Structure formats: C-alpha cells, structure tokens
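[job 0412] stage=fold_complex status=start
inputs:
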Amino acid sequence: MKTSAKKRTMRALGLAAILILGLFATAQAKVDGLYNGANPTFNLTAATGYIVGGDGAVLHIWGLSPQGGPVQYPAPTLIIPQGSTVTVNLTNQLAEPVSLVFPGQTNVQATGGIEGLVTREAVPGGTVTYTFTAATPGTFMYQSGSNMALQIEMGLAGAIIVRPAGFAIPGNMTAYGTADTAYDQEILYFQSEMDHRIHEKVDSGQASLVDLTTWFPYYWFYNGRNAPDVFSAAGVPWLPNQPYDCFPHLLPGQKMLLRIVGAGRDMHPFHHHGNSATLIAVDGQVLESTPGSNNPDLGEVLFTQPVLPGQTRDVIFSWNGNELGFDIYGHVATDPILEVEVFAAATLQDPLAETDTGVNVAAPSQGAFPKRRAFRAVLTSGLATDPAREVVVLRMDDPAQPNILTVVKRGQEGTTTPASWPANTSAVIGTYHGQIFAGPADNRFPVTLPDQKDLTMGAFYSGSPFLGAMGTLPPGEGGFNLNNGLAFMWHSHSEKELTNNNIFPGGAISIAIVEPFGTTIEQSAH
Amino acid sequence: MKIYVRIRRAPRPSRLVVAAVALVLLLAQGAWAISYDLTAGAFTKTMPGGQIVTMWGYKLTGTADPFTSPGPELTVPTGETTLTVNLTNALPAGPAHSPTLHDTSIVIPGLIATGQAPVYQTIGAIPKNRMTSFDRVATPGGGAVTYTFQNVRPGSYLYMSGSNPALQVEMGLYGPAKRLAAPGQAYAGVAFDTEATLILGEIDPAMHAAVAGGTYGTPVYPSAFDHHPKFFLVNGEPFTSTRAPVFVGAANQTVLLRILNAGLQIHVPATTGAYMTVVGEDSYEKDHPRRQLALMLAPQKRLDVTMTVPDGKTLIYDRTLDVVNANIAGPGGMMVFLQSGAAPIPTCRGDLNQNGQVDASDLQIFLDSPEFGRSNCTVSAPCATDYNGDGRVNMRDLRLINSWVGTCPAPAAAVVEPAASSGAPALSRGGKPPLNGDFDGNGSVDHKDLRLMLDAVDDPACAAGDCAADLNGDGKIDTADLALFKAAMLASGKKGKK
Amino acid sequence: MPSTLMRRALGLLLGVCLLALAVPAARAAVIVQCPGDNNGDADLVDVGDTPDPDRVVRCMHLTGGDGYAVMADGRRQYTFGFHDLTGTAIGQVINEGRMKANWPSPLIARDEGDEFFLTLTNVGMVQRPDLFDAHSVHFHGFPNSSSIFDGLPESSFGINMMSSLTYYYNVVKAGTYMYHCHIEATEHMQMGMLGNLYVRPAQNRYPDGHPLGALPAGKGAAHVNGDYALNPNQDDPLVGYKYAYNDGDGSTYYDVEYPIMMGGFDSNFHDADEFVQPLNFADLEDNYTMLNGRGYPDTVNTAPGAIVNVNGFEAQKTPSLISVNSGQIILLRIVNLNVTHFWGLSALGLPMKVIAHDADLLQTADGSQKLYYLTNSVTIGGGGSVDVLIDTTGLPTGTYPLYSTLLDHLSNPSEDFGGMMTEIRIN
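[job 0412] stage=fold_complex status=done
writing structure:
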C-alpha cells in the first residue's frame, strides 16, 4: 500500500477547506496569548476538554482555560511586561490536585491550597495563588508541578513571554532589550506530543491504570495543533480548544524571532529549511560572553535546533537570497539595489579601464567579498539618480589579497560600459546575487526545468523559481502560496513525527513563507 | 560502606594502618598512585511495589560491605593524576550458551587505561570477529585485572563495565569518580561550598530476570535492544515519598552537582526553580558557562553544574518525565530534592559523605574542605568539622577523624581526644635541630611517621619547644607542619617508592 | 484499525487512478545539464567537452530508485536510495541505475566556489512496479537556499519516473551537511535515501606560504600548498594542508577525514514496503542501527566486495574503520540522518574537540575568538551535524571503539556486539 495518494487526498482536503474559508487573505507572524498589562493577574482554571487531531481524531486533554474561556491546548501563552509582579490564580476542576511551577522566574510564592510535593496545590474544587516577579525578559514556560508525568502529558503546560522594558510594536521589538536581539517578526513554536492511548484511558476514568513507562507518542504538535491544522488561522471556530496557529511569514532581509518551547517529553530536532539561524538565548538566558549585556555574541548558528523538553530557545532566522548563484528576485539591471541584497560594498582604489583584467578595491565598508568564487557586482557612481551603472562578474582569486578582484565579465544585461570608472569617490561596488545566465529577463536561470508533466508538484509551489513571480501551473496544482512567496518547511527532523497516528503527512510540520517585498504581515498585538 | 585504599602492591594492612596509609596517600600528591580494590558481584534489590530484582554492583574488595549500585565513589586526591583500579570478578559464572557473558572489565570514558586491549570473539548469528569488551576482562570466580588510568584531570567521571556494557551497565556495574582541582574548587578558580553527585540509572526488571535466570541471549531476552526500563534511578534509588533529600548545607551557598548518566537513554535533568550553571562537561571546564533550566544528559555524559540552592528544597528531576515507578500511579523515578538548611544530625560523627561510616573518603573531604585551617568558628558561623569544639579546624580535628576511621561514633557522644603520646622518645628533639619527619628513624618519611606526628599534637613537650613533630619549631603542631611533612614525605616517597 | 484500512483502500484507489492519469502524459526523458559537457555523461573530462575556464563547474548524475542492503546479521533489507552514474552515457542510465540503490547514498564532497550541477534521474522501483513515486534531493543545511532547488516537494516538486531534473547549487559555505530525498519524507528517508555531503573550505586553496598562526605543532606557521591552480575540468586533488573550515588560523587542520552517518532501519517497515503491506508509520522505531549503512562489525570490514546484497551488488560501499598513524589528526564529519532518534557517539578515552555544529565554525559573533570545546561524546538529533577533531598526538597506540552511547543500540538487533559502532585504530 502506498501513501502518496493518501497524501494527495489529505492535501486536497486541506486545501479545499482553507480556500473555501479564505484564510490566506493576510499573511501573519505573531504570537497570540493573554495580555493583561503591567502587574497582571491571570485567572486560570484547570479542566478537562477535547481537541481535534490532524487526522480528525477527538483527543481528551487536561488544559487551562482563561477566565470565562474554553479550556486550551496548550495552556494560554502569558505575555507579560518585564518587571511585573504577576499573580496567577489557579482553580482546579480536575479530580486530582493540580499546581503550577514557573521555572526561571524569580521570587515565586504560593499561597492557599495544600502543601504538595513540589509546591502548593489546588485540591479538586479549590484554588491556589502564585505570585512571581517577571524580572528578566525572554521566553519561558510554565507547567504542572503535580503528578508531572501524567499532567504535562495531558496538557498542563504553556509559554510565558516576558517583554523587555521599552518594548513596543512597532518601533522597538526586541527579545532582550538590545539591538542585537531586535526582530521584525516573531513566532511561537510550542512543541508537544501525545500518546493518545493514555488520554483514552484517562477519559474513560482509568487514569490509575496508565503505565507511563510504556509512553509512545502518536501525535506531535506545534502550538497545540497538528499539520495541516497549523495552517488554519488562530481562533478559527472549528478548533475552539486549540486557538493558536503556526504559519510564519517574513520578508527578505527581515529577522524573525522563533520562540521555541520544548513542552513534551521527547527531544525534537527542529529543522528550518531556507537558512541556518542563530540561537541567541536558551531558557531565557542570552548566550553572551559579558554577563548581563544581553549581547548574544556567543550565539550558535544552526540549521537544526535540538529542542530539549523543559527548554526554551530563542532563535533569529533571516533569509536574503544572497549567493544563490542566480538572481532569485529576477531583477533587471536598472532595478534599484535594495539594502538586503547587498553583501559587500567598497570603493575603487584605482580607476577601472576597459582593458583591465582586475580591479583594486578598498576594504569593504560593509560585509566581505566571497573568497575564490565568482560573484555579481554593480559599478555605480554612488548616486541614486545617476543612471551610469554596469553589472560585472568578479572573483577574488587570492584570499591573501582580498582587495584584488579579477574581472570575469563586464557590461552585462545591457548596462553601460564606460571607458573608465574613476577611482575613490565616484564609483562604488555593490555586490549581490550570482552571475548572469542567458535567457529572457524574467528567466535568467542556471538550468532548464523539466516539463511540468514530469514533475510532481506541491501545494506551495508558485510555478516559478523567482520570488513573487507566478508561473503557469496545471489545474489543481499550487494554491497555498497566494503571494508567490518562497515556501520553506520548518519541521521535526525525526520524520516519523510528520504523521498523525500513522497517517503521513501531518504532525510536526509547518511552512514558513518568505513573502515578496510589499506584502503586509500582521504583527503580534502585544 | 567504607573505602579501602592502599599503596599499590603493598601487603594488606590492618584497619588502623589502613587509616594511616590513607592519609599518606591523600597527602602524597603525585608521589603515589591512588589505588582502589573493587569487586563486582550480584545482589538483590527490592523495588517500589515489592518486586525483587537481581542487580550487579561493586564493593571494596576484602570488606564485609554489601555490593552496591552505583559502586563506591572513587576520589582521586587533589594533585594526584593516576588512578588504579584492581578489579576482582565475583559475579556468578556465565550461562552455558554464552560462557563469557559475565566476564567484566572497568572503563572510564575520558581516560585511557595503560595497556588497554580490547577483547575479540568470533560470534554472532553469522560468526564474525568482533570486539566484545573494550578492555581486558576479569572472569567470574575471582578473576582479577588491574587498570591504571593516567592523566586524570579535575572533574567528574563515570567508571563502568566495558564488557557488553549495554547489559552490564544496565545491571548496575557503574559508579562515580572525581578529582578536585584544589580544595573547594571543581576546576581551577571554580569555587563551591558543598558538592553532591547525582548519578542516573535505569532498571528493566525483565532484563535482570533474564540474566538471573540464565535466559539472557536466548529468545526469551535476546539482546540489550529489548531494554525497556521500568525504574529510573538517582544514585541507585527511584523516588518514593519517603526518599531522603540530598542535603547541601546552608541556604544560598554554591553547590557543585556532579550529574552523570549511567542509563542507556538520554535524560534531561531539570529544575523547577533556580538556574543551573554548567561549569564543566566530561571533565573539561567550560570557557563560557551557560545558565540553564534543563540539561541534555546523554548516556555516559558527565556535567558539572553549580547552583545556588535557596532556602528549603529544590527539585532536580528528569524532564523527559521518567518520574514514575513502573505502573504505580503518582510521582516516582528520576527525581531527588536538594535540601538546604541545617543538615540533620548524621548517623556518625565525621561521616562527611554520609555513607554510614567514617572512611578515607571522609578524610579526603575533610582535607579538601575550605574549613580546614579555619580558626574563627563560632556559634553563628560554626564549622561542621571542628570536632573538639575549640573554634578551630586543625590538626587535632584531623587526628580525631583519623582515629574514627572504620568506626561510626555517635554524634551525640562526647568527643574523647586520643591521649597524647606523652614524652614519646622518638619525638623528643633532645635539643637537636628539627628532624626531617622521619620520626621513627626507619629511613623513610611515611605513614608511621604521620601517626606519630598526630599523636604528638598534645604532647607537652611540643609546647615546651622540644618536639620533633613541630617541624617548624614554633611551639605548636599545625597545618604549617603538615605542609612541611607532606614535602618531606614527597621527597622520601620519590626515593623509596616501591 | 478499520478506519486505517479504509483510508488505505481509498489511497490505493486514488493511486491507481493517478497512475493511469500521470504516466501516459509524461514526456519522460533522461536529460543531463552540465555546462561544458557535450556528450551528456555529466563529466567534463571527455574529448570534446568544453569547460568554461572562468567558472568552476562541477557535475554529478545521481539516479534514484530501489535496491537491497544486507544487515550485519545477514538479514536482507529492501531499500530506496541514490546511485552515482556520473560518467555514464545517457542511454545507459536507466538500465545501469535500476536496483542500484546505495546505502548510504553516494558521498557528495565539493569545494567552496564550485557551481554544482546535480542531475537526478528517477529510474523507478523495480521491486515495486505499483509505485510511481517521485524523488528529490534536499541539500540539507544549504545556506540561503532557494525553494526551487530545495528538494522539498511541498514548495517545489519531485521528478517523476524515467525523467531527469538538474539542481544548481552555488557552493558557498564550507562545512558538513547531508542530503536526502524529501518526497514522502518519512518513508523515503526511512527506506535509505540519505547521503553524506560536505564542502571543503576555500582555505585549502590558499597559496603556499600564507601565514596561519594556529597550525598544530610541527606543521609550521604557514599554509603548504604545492598546487595552487584549480583545474577547470575536474575535481582537483588537494596536495597541501587541509582544513575543515575557513578558520583563518589553521586551527581546523586535519590529516584524515571520515564522514560518519548515524542511521537506522526499522526492519518491519522495510519488509512491509518490500512485500506491499501497509506501512506502519506510528510504530516506527529503528532496530538496526548503523554507521554509514553498516552495523558492527561490518563497519570495520574494509575488504572490497565483502558486503554484497541479495543480487550480488555491493550496495553498502562505505566502511567506517578509522585508521591513523600516531600523531595524525582525525576529522570526523558526524551527521545523524535517521527518522526516529537522537543518538550519540563516544570514542571512550579519546578526547574529541568539537569545532563546528551544523556546518558553522564555533566562534564568537565577531569571529575574534574560537569557541571549540573538548568532550568525550557528542549527541545529535536527525538533521544535525557536528565536526570533531581527534588529535592522536601523545595518545597510546591501539584500538578504540567509536560507539553509540545509547548502549542498547550496540546490537543487530537480536544479537549483542553489533549496531552503531566502529573502531579507531591508532597505529
């Protein structure tokens, strides 16, 4: 038996649902949650409920509901201004004592309830109050401190985001209050799993018969949803107990902050297609050589994040399409050079004559030229209004002499080729992208793509390699990528987790989309 | 349990001599290899729920101690860099279908044994030559092998079986080892006030039953791949409601936790409150310690972590949530509380590592303690090791704890200081210049001289200035004299080392 | 589970319908794209080939299909995998590529600065004529990737049977990566479409005498390179000092390198795929664990042709025996490419110096300070890589295990003394 047909069925169903409901109208990258201003009080009730798996299964959970709201999986994300004194009133509607712990928070006090193993607990029908100081910014979690192996599995865990002092949307979006932790977009990846056999036992009143040493998960969640439900908008009415989505969008050159929370029992290798990304903080602590600086100079560049249970990771992802070897923006020579596309710029030290085979440049004022490989550059007079510009291909042959660049090709794409470019003030080299490939201006591409009939295409394929361009697709193909962005899967690289109880695809899959310039991306509210 | 230490290849000494020899070794610092004699053997353990499982463990050879898992902690003295383990195999013979199954060995990840030589056998579904032991094996029935590990760096170690470790480590053949950079320092400059070792383990009762019943390696339990643990241990015990916490001294001190994984699975030690600072990994100091709430601890990984433990109790638990005992509802498994505040009265006075007896490792702790040498102990700032209550932790207290080795003096009992060896002739200088430490004149500065020196602490002759043990001639026998004695012994030992 | 069976039945029905629709319409042809290669065999070394002297074009032709592997206990395993047919004439590719899945897939080793044209031809599944799966190559960890060449079927496409697709990679960042098919990722990866991939740094091509201040003892203070110029036609053997990364100071110098892929098979899953049974994704759990596609002790068997599959084909060509002379520095390029577990490796007493995670040199953000660290074991999840140097200077000669710290994986799987282990021999 084969799965691809199954997969197509799934995809078609998901696509139909999403298209019918028109959920792609606004691209977004935001964190939803409870925000009650400074020094907030959160009234949370632990109760039973049901959620829906990516395969349509109904799964029994224990979750927390914000006052008056439905019980949630995961527990509500608490968004708190730094320095707040936070009060959490936990009311217990479960049949066994419940408590909450707040790892990484300071001055945690528990009052009311009864003494438990780890902290004070609310008895069934009772209430317990926790207070703490959200002293430092960052990404944290909170979870049950009672009968943890069962209660965390059942769903009693959530994220805490502490906004740094001075935080503002828009204007001053940083993870830790410093320029090196600034971002343009943010997204939560609250990762959990579920062994539904345990939940079925609990649902049928057999909690005492559960053997947690035989735990073996069959569902994997991002923000409480399996794929493909992660693509449905936050708060859709058909997922009342799973209010959070997971569908990040960003523009080229923007920084996206991923707040990753390992809330389950297993470790998950979280792989972000598209680019490596910089881990800037773990467990709310910036990776810094100078304690207290919140300057993540010890950050790690990774393409797969090993997410531990009980751990939070703040990761900054960016994508700009540099050095792909072809121009993914599909520019023509006269297009303005955007800042995001420049990876090095320098002035000429010597004039460049028509017959010269090399140029002598000053140390780059920004970035660095690639070593021993051809790259594309633009010679300009440095004035935006000056039409004189020439696209060339250069190569640094000797890394020991980084200021000498061999001229490989000149005068590309119909640009001007003056007899000589003067030195110093009048000519600037901005470099971007790769070399020039033959073809019409909208298809300067290194290879010829196969006939579409020889391809099995995906729902996020725009039909074109170029950002923002829509190619022709056969009927029924594509459709998930309304702005013709570039789609990258962000997923668990333990690929067995890309399933919903034996059905592929599903589980720990999400898709990030690099949208074309000009796309509006909705931000977090608080 | 007591730790039995001796000079390499020395004849087996009496218990009293053991104590003195221990001190010699602790002081010798580089002159002598420290040597531990371990015997591997089987024992049984009752698990929560009443199940009795067969375990394998270690004890100190030649003692009446029970076998334990984890085995005795092996302490390499500060400044010492060679660790010798003499292993004796007292396990039952292997089953007929796999006669070498109970052959065992000792390996220490991170260290290389001198002459390390893997064992190969041609076995398997398709017979193929393969490494069946990472190093030389001791066979059941009393087989013995000596393993000498050089270049022991400061840090935490895990010693374990290197023979079919998937089976033998799971059965319990593992234990902790450590070396300090300096008294009170995990690594050079990484100071702590108190320390504790947390060693994680797992038990799959079915595997243990198969080993005990001789069916391991048969279709009943073919291989370690079938390992499915039901019990999750810290320091050999799963959590239960009656489990005693680990006492870490006064609140808000710096506690060094040595966290080792002797299980077969990855675990994630975590706290629900205070941060842990990872100062070392696999006995390498971290250049940039990270503050974390959860730690990846793969099997055989050793992490050195410092924590400031607030007043009260702090939970250390496995965040992979192996915090249950088999199918018993409620908390259990891989959890332990750190308890700040005053430790309860220990079972024995001088039993600093609370293993039920005063032994050489307590002497090591005493000497490595930042308290040693303090002279300002008060009621408000007491010294736990000021045994004679004179406000100082000095040679007299050293003499006291040395006199208790091998015993378990009740804490409430009055401290009886050993009588001074009044007028011991060998210690009278008779007006001559201070001696070099060879008080008994046998040609070497050794443990016998140390005993004489300690016995002379209260000798009135010393106060009168006629005391050979008062090496610096300042009218008292104190740590300054001990340092001189160490130097003399070091020089003598280099000459006379066997 | 009846509902699952129903889903499967529906899937089969749809699959048959789609097969009927898809196959006749396809244009289906083997096409190699490799600038300067004029006879379509994906290399640039033939008379008549015209490589561009201004470009460093490198080409490779992989086929994707099925095959067999043999486990260390003799058990046969049906596999999917890639096979290297670079240099094979186009007309022979389908025949040559069928039932030739390698496990692991062929090594791809490139140099920084290469333009890499990788042609993938889908030769179909001989053992499963009912399948019509596409294949792709996902260059895992490629910096700033495009979605068109990412191999991710959701964002682009896979290539159908009997057709070819050429990927283009501007190889710009040194490091240890990996590649795999991303079509039906759980199935195709579990079935073995996984390969080692690494990129050597431009620093290897520094001119002779370029100063490097942190070379190992005895290696002087400058780069040694007797052959500075690149040959535009073909891979140019490195004759001088070699480094793992552009470290700027020689601190990643090594003498010998070994890619080490931690991987595993769930034999029930492979058997189900071979015998057209329902695939059990839910209970996936690798029971055969391997390094570079072999369980111990096959990992240390370096005899050519010693490990052949049921068809007599040497599918598992990558032994992992690490053999060095005392004083040499070993570079282990360790990746984990399995779909179920985090795994760890230890060299027991040998110190491991970790110099990079995920193809990125460990250093401060401004590059002013290296952040290498010493350890005794490394642990990574699927899709992670780590570069480890083992300096054998001063270490006793002898044989040391390089073994799975998750000790229950030292089995094949119902016999002990197997699985994820090899040996390091210091001579």
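[job 0412] summary: Chain C has two domains: 13-200, 254-426.
[job 0412] exit 0
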